[in-house]
Design goal:
160 residues, alpha+beta, 7-stranded mixed sheet, two-stranded antiparallel sheet, 9 strands, 14% helix, globular
């Protein structure tokens, strides 16, 4: 078996396309109203969705984070997700913004752990004890029951 060459195109998208992906997200079908939305297209097929949103923080300025990433089931396992998040993170970096990702997904986390374009944050692979389920933000709680991968996208050295 020869894996086909995969070149994805990325486009800004209207948030309404989330309906095509929401049933495939492992946490929730919710999407923040202020999300920036992107789609991944391979061979004229929409195969992935990524939303980013601002990350309000008193310490880090101009920060955004991944909010939802979904690759449709028929296209999972081909490496599209990691290339997609890298590309969207680079778009943010090119626009003078910092980009962060926090995920419990093992494949995505291990990719970032071994990548030269992501660096771990101080919260990486640590149980969050600084939050609790009483901390609600737009009816979303911050998960403090799972150890997650937490990374900042830094890009390639020659791109900085």
């Amino acid at each position: 078996f020869v894996r086909p060459e995969i070149n994805i195109d990325i486009y800004s998208a209207d948030r309404n396309i989330w309906g095509m992906f929401k049933d495939h997200h492992y946490l929730s079908g919710d999407l923040a109203l202020a999300s920036r939305c992107y789609v991944a297209v391979w061979d004229n097929q929409v195969v992935g969705f990524l939303a980013s949103m601002t990350m309000p923080n008193g310490y880090v300025k101009d920060a955004w984070r991944g909010h939802r990433v979904v690759i449709l089931p028929d296209y999972q396992g081909l490496g599209i997700g990691v290339r997609f998040i890298d590309a969207v993170a680079q778009i943010h970096l090119d626009n003078g913004l910092k980009f962060f990702s926090r995920t419990a997904h093992p494949r995505m986390g291990y990719y970032m752990q071994h990548s030269d374009v992501w660096k771990p944050t101080s919260k990486n692979r640590k149980l969050r004890t600084d939050v609790n389920h009483d901390n609600l933000f737009n009816n979303h709680y911050v998960d403090n029951k799972r150890v997650c991968f937490s990374y900042q996208y830094i890009g390639k050295e020659n791109d900085q």
